[in-house]
Amino acid sequence: MLKGGFRPVGEFKHVAVVEFVKVEFGDELCRRLAFAFNNVRRKRHRVVYEQAGITTEREASEVIGLAEEFVNRVGVMLEQGA
C-alpha cells in the first residue's frame, strides 16, 4: 500500500488494508487471504474487547500459512519492481 502511495487513515485502518489487498491483487490466493484476514480482524476485535480464547490453534495455523504465502508474494513483487 505504502509503495503505491496509499496510506490507511482513520478509525478503520485494518478494513482499508483488507480492501486494498482485494483490489490490488485480485487473484484466488489474495481473495482467500482477504477473507481470512478480515475474519481474523473481526475475531481480534472480539478477543481484545469482548471474549478471550475464541481462536483455535488450527485457525491460527491456517492464517499463519496464508500470511506466509502473502509475504512471499509481496516479496516477489518487490523484487520485480511491481
Instruction: Count up the helices.
Output: 3
Overall pLDDT level: 78
Percentage of residues in DSSP E strands: under 5%
Shape: globular
Tell me the series of helices and strands, N- to C-terminal: HHH
Rounded radius of gyration (Å): 14 Å
> What composes the largest sheet?
none
E-strand count:
0
The percent range for helix content is over 70%
Intertermini distance: 12 Å
What is the count of distinct domains?
1
Q: Classify the secondary structure makeup into a structural class.
A: mainly alpha
pLDDT below 50 for ≥5 consecutive residues: which ranges? none
Per-chain topology:
Layout: H1 13-25, H2 28-49, H3 57-80
Helix pairs in contact: 1-2, 2-3
